[in-house]
Amino acid sequence: MNILLISGSTREGSLNKSLLDAVAEEAHNLKHQTTSLSRQLASFPLYHFELEEDAAVQNQLSLLRQQIEAADVILISSPEYNGFLSPHLHNIFTWASRRAAGKSHSVLEGKVVGLFAAAPGPFGGVRMLPRLSSFAADHGCWVHPRYVAVGNMAAKTDESGQLTCSETRQKLRNLISQTCKMAEPVQIAEPA
Ligand SMILES: Cc1cc2nc3c(=O)[nH]c(=O)nc-3n(C[C@H](O)[C@H](O)[C@H](O)COP(=O)(O)O)c2cc1C
């Protein structure tokens, strides 16, 4: 499967970026390919309607659409900010929800999505995840009903940010493989 990785945090040293690095490693171990959302899209301006006419923003938007269209599965890891998803991630969804000219639906429609979160605190973003799940479903995504919230993330990584907790890695593998299964074409047996 082609997996698109989206971090809700764009900052250097982000815990969610570290978690997505581990997600990418585990996805490769499971024989999937991964691509990260382009760095160009980290500077996407906050959405408003008039910006849709801006040539530079149109380039960013078409890159975003291409990356989403090319993905069989999208795996997202977002920080929790006051119980909600990050403003950056919200903005990415808002831009991606805009239909391209001549299209009847957005590129998000029908995309299979798996959700992760990392936080320095003990709960790992668990208040935000069901909200993100419902938010993504409202955009037409098919969201895996379970998610992985990694609390005390700093204690589970080494000094280079590498996830060292084997139990957490097992949870990542489980959610990656189940989410990829959701994206396999449904096999309907012919009636006998
Ligand atoms: C405005 C603000 C609100 C936050 N709210 C929460 C929260 O509700 N739950 C939580 O676990 N952490 C919260 N945090 C802490 C973030 O989880 C922490 O900054 C985290 O490292 C951000 O993710 P990142 O490392 O991927 O950038 C908040 C941080 C900020 C700055």
From TrEMBL:
The chain positions of domain NADPH-dependent FMN reductase-like read 1-152
What's the superkingdom here? Bacteria
Task: Show the InterPro entries listed in the entry.
Answer: Flavoprotein-like_sf (IPR029039), FMN_Rdtase-like_dom (IPR005025), NAD(P)H-dep_reductase (IPR050712)
Q: What is this protein called?
A: NAD(P)H-dependent FMN reductase
